Amino acid sequence: MANSSISAIYTAGSLTKPPTLLRDEYPQWKIRMVNFLEGMDRDLLRSVNDGPHQPMVLVPRVPATTDTAEIPAYYENKTSNFTEEETNMMENDSKAVRLLIMAIPNDIFQELDSCVTAKEIWDQLLNQLEGGLQTQKNRRNLFINEYHDFHASPEETLHQTYSRFNILINKCRKFRVMRTKEGNNVLFLKSLNEEWLQLSMSIQANQNLESWSLTDIYGTLVAQEKEVVKQKAKTSLGGPLALMSKQKGVSQECRNPEKDMFKERI
């Protein structure tokens, strides 16, 4: 437990240490890193998104003379006499690079250690770990399909199913795929394992699922979870005998189809 807590703090970062990037958690890291940079200094984001900032100086126009042509005014890199604002911007560029390097583990950094500026590092991470337009489109379609095909795993707890479903809804929302409350509620109830069938059908028949949140649904189910688990255990214990009895009954009915038809005619 202690090691797990330390690992979580290390990954999430702190007020002075940037969050550590994990390859499979890039979307979450990106959000945390943006918040970390904004907390340190809002101008650090300018370095990441628009840097580097190279102060320029205007070289005045040189008029034409009898011996030389006119030289139009132009800008060139400034090498001295920086203003306070320019100095701060350049320092933020360097600081942003250092913070990003601190946040990137070696296995990822070795793929982009040729990058010099914070923007180059940020853009390369975006390209490698989030992908281009087609990759984003494929991922969007994947999440949509996962949503429609969602169902609880046989050995999964109610909380685990609820958590997975919320994560999937959030993934869809990132791609602007929004669902109604009723749509989410109905799909969640229908996705539950067989032991929840009776309670699920009762909620669908008797409650206004347009006004209920998914949390309301989950809370209602949790209140009955002990009883549902108890009934499932009883059914499991009597399962083989009950199944044999049922199969025997079906076999007997199949042996007498004419008798059944005669009963129906009467």
Could you describe the 3D structure shown?
By secondary structure, the chain is mostly helical. The protein folds into 2 domains: 2-59 and 69-131, no CATH class; 134-222, no CATH class. 65% of the residues lie in helices and 3% in strands. The protein contains 14 helices and 2 strands, in the order H-H-H-E-E-H-H-H-H-H-H-H-H-H-H-H. It has a two-stranded antiparallel sheet. Helix 7 runs antiparallel to helix 8 (158-174).
Count of DSSP-assigned helices: 14
Radius of gyration, whole Å: 32 Å
Major sheet description: 2 strands, antiparallel
Q: In what order do the strands lie side by side in the largest sheet?
A: 1-2
| Overall outline | elongated
Total number of distinct structural domains: 2
